[in-house]
Amino acid sequence: MMIQNKRIFASILFVLISFVSSAQGGDPIPPPPLPPPPPPGFPIDGGVLAVLFMALCYGSMKYYSKIKLQD
C-alpha cells in the first residue's frame, strides 16, 4: 500500500508542477528599443589647416621680430 500512495503523490505533484510551469508562460514583455547611435565626432577639415597656417604665420612673425630686436 505504501508504493501505491507514493505513486499517487508523485502523480499529483507532476500534474501540479505542469500547471504551475504552464502558468508562467505567456507573452513576454518586449525589450525597450535600442538607443540611437552616438553623433559623429568632430570633423577635421579645412578649419584645422587654417589654424595651423595662422599659427605658422604668428610664430614666424614673433621669430622675425625677436631677431630684429637683437640687431
For this entry, give a set of tags.
mainly alpha, 71 residues, 2 helices
Radius of gyration: 40 Å
The general outline is rod-shaped
- Helical element count? 2
Order of H and E elements: HH
Average predicted confidence as pLDDT? 82
Q: Which stretches are poorly predicted, pLDDT < 50 over at least 5 residues?
A: none
- Please report which band the strand proportion falls in: under 5%, 5-15%, 15-25%, 25-35%, 35-45% or over 45%: under 5%
Number-wise, the strands total 0
The largest sheet is: none
Helix- and strand-based class?
mainly alpha
Quote the distance from N terminus to C terminus: 122 Å
DSSP helix fraction: 55-70%
What is the chains' assembly state? single chain
Describe this structure in words.
The chain is mainly alpha-helical and 71 residues long. Helix content is 66%, strand content 0%. The longest helix has 25 residues, at 46-70. It starts with a helix and ends with a helix.
Per-chain topology:
Elements: H1 2-23, H2 46-70
Brief sketch in words of this structure:
The chain has 71 residues and is mainly alpha-helical.
